[in-house]
Write a structure and sequence with these properties.
It is built from six helices and eleven strands. The longest helix is centred in the middle third of the chain and has 15 residues, at 123-137. 27% of the residues lie in helices and 22% in strands. It is globular.
Length: 214
């Protein structure tokens, strides 16, 4: 007799598997290893959280990820120039999420970057960019999870143990919009540190990369 499919399971949404990495700093070897990790784990999406740095010098920096035929999204960090950022978009067809959002299936990803050697960001302008993205997502009933990605770290999070004060605008966005995840880089020593702010799961992403299933 044919086994009937559980109707509840038939309507369950498929999870999205993501490789998130930050602070490659021009290392082609690291990019290759991360791409191998992504391939081994059969990820659906690549997120690079800034300080890619070296895209104009290391032609194999983005290419290993693109060879996987998976979308590559990124935000620029303080070591990423506007020229490098534009080149990554043009040559590799990777999508820069600085100030905008992307949607994959029922997952929305909002981004904020700090290119051109900015160790701090225009807090007012950065918050307005994030607010505009989240406002556009408001009321979209097909969104299951919201992810906020940033190179710079948020103010008053555990990443500040390093002494580097994070962005107040980013923290305000977390408090106000309560995304399901905040993925942040920049503080190398904070890699792997996690915490909860309300409903938001904050994860410090680093050079070793992190596989997330959401």
């Amino acid at each position: 007799m044919e086994k009937q499919q559980n109707p509840q399971k038939a309507h369950e949404k498929k999870s999205l598997k993501i490789l998130a990495a930050s602070d490659l700093h021009g290392s082609s070897d690291l990019a290759r290893k991360l791409a191998e990790k992504a391939d081994k784990n059969k990820v659906d999406l690549i997120l690079l959280l800034g300080d890619i740095n070296g895209a104009t010098k290391s032609k194999n920096l983005i290419a290993p990820f693109k060879k996987l035929n998976k979308p590559v999204l990124f935000v620029p960090g303080n070591w990423d120039t506007s020229f490098e950022t534009a080149m990554i978009e043009a040559v590799y067809n990777a999508r820069n999420l600085d100030g905008i959002y992307a949607k994959y299936d029922d997952i929305a990803i909002v981004g904020i970057g700090n290119p051109d050697f900015q160790l701090s960001i225009d807090e007012k302008k950065a918050f307005e960019k994030m607010k505009e993205s989240f406002d556009r997502l408001y009321g979209k009933g097909d969104i299951r999870k919201k992810i906020l990605i940033s190179h710079i770290n948020a103010h008053n999070t555990r990443s500040e143990f390093s002494g580097f004060k994070g962005s107040k605008a980013l923290r305000k966005a977390v408090d106000y919009f309560q995304p399901d995840f905040l993925l942040q880089g920049h503080i190398h020593e904070a890699e792997g540190i996690e915490e909860k702010i309300g409903k938001t799961h904050v994860i410090n992403i680093g050079r070793n990369g992190r596989i997330l299933e959401v």
